[in-house]
Design brief:
The chain has 225 residues and is of the alpha/beta class. Helix content is 20%, strand content 27%. It contains five helices and twelve strands. Strand 6 (89-93) and strand 7 (96-103) form a beta hairpin.
Length: 225
C-alpha cells in the first residue's frame, strides 16, 4: 500500500451503529474517510453479536491479512468498539436516545429508533415482517416516528422464492407503516440489486398509491424532518 495521507483535525467523535455485520453492511467501513483523520474518535456499535463474539472481533477479522492491508491500530483515528444486546436502550450522547430491538434476519440484526429534540426516526433494515401479527417490539420502534426507513427488498410476488432470506416486501412495508402511525413517512429501502430504475419507478408509484407520501431511497436523497 502506498503512503497514507493523514489529515490533521481537531479531536472529534462520531458513533456508527451497525444493524449487523453481514459483509454488504460493513465492507465500506475500512475505507471510511474519518478513519484516516488523526485524533478522530470513531465508536462502532453492534447489538446482535453477543455472546458468541463481539463487534471488535468481527471488524478485526475483516481488516486482516489477506483481506485488508491495514489493521485497526494502523489507522490514524482511534477506533473504539461497543457491544450491547438488541432490546436495550443506548444513550451515546447527551439528549440522544437509541431504542433497539432484534430483527428477524439470519444471524440476527438490530433495529433502531433514534430520538432527538422531540423527533424520532426508525431504521429497520434486513428483517422479515411476515404475514402474521406485527412484532410489538418492532412496532414500538416505528410508532409515530417522523420517518420509518424499512427493509422492503422484494414484492409480494417475489417473496415465496426468498423464504428464509430475512427480507420483506414493499406491500408488507406499507401495511407496517400504517400500523406505526398515520403521519409516519415511509422510506422503502434495501432494494434488490436486480431491480433496475424502471422497476423501482413502478414500485414507487404503486407504493405511493397504496400509502400516500411513501418515498423510495435513492442516491442523494435528503429528507427534511
Amino acid at each position: 500500500m502506498g503512503q497514507t495521507l493523514v489529515q490533521a483535525a481537531p479531536t472529534t467523535e462520531l458513533d456508527i451503529f451497525l444493524s449487523h455485520c453481514h459483509i454488504d453492511h460493513v465492507v465500506g467501513l475500512p475505507f471510511f474517510a474519518p478513519l484516516f483523520v488523526r485524533d478522530q474518535v470513531v465508536r462502532v456499535w453492534a447489538g446482535n453479536l453477543k455472546p458468541s463474539c463481539g463487534v471488535e472481533s468481527a471488524i478485526r477479522k475483516m481488516m486482516s491479512f489477506p483481506l485488508f492491508p491495514l489493521q485497526a491500530e494502523d489507522l490514524p483515528a482511534r477506533i473504539e468498539f461497543r457491544d450491547f444486546c438488541a432490546g436495550e436502550t443506548v444513550n451515546p450522547r447527551p439528549g440522544i436516545t437509541l431504542r433497539t430491538a432484534l430483527l428477524n434476519h439470519p444471524g440476527g440484526a438490530t433495529g433502531y429508533r433514534i430520538e432527538y429534540e422531540g423527533k424520532s426516526v426508525a431504521y429497520l433494515t434486513d428483517t422479515d415482517l411476515g404475514d402474521g401479527p406485527i412484532d410489538p417490539k418492532l412496532l414500538a420502534l416505528a410508532k409515530d416516528a417522523a420517518l420509518v426507513i424499512l427493509d422492503t427488498t422484494y414484492t409480494d410476488k417475489e417473496l415465496p422464492s426468498h423464504i428464509g432470506w430475512g427480507h420483506s416486501s414493499w406491500q408488507q412495508g406499507t401495511r407496517f407503516a400504517s400500523a406505526a402511525g398515520a403521519d409516519s413517512k415511509l422510506c422503502l429501502f434495501h432494494h434488490d440489486p436486480e431491480h433496475d430504475d424502471t422497476f423501482m419507478d413502478s414500485v414507487a408509484a404503486a407504493a405511493k398509491a397504496a400509502r400516500p407520501g411513501t418515498i423510495v431511497a435513492q442516491e442523494g436523497l435528503q429528507v427534511d424532518l
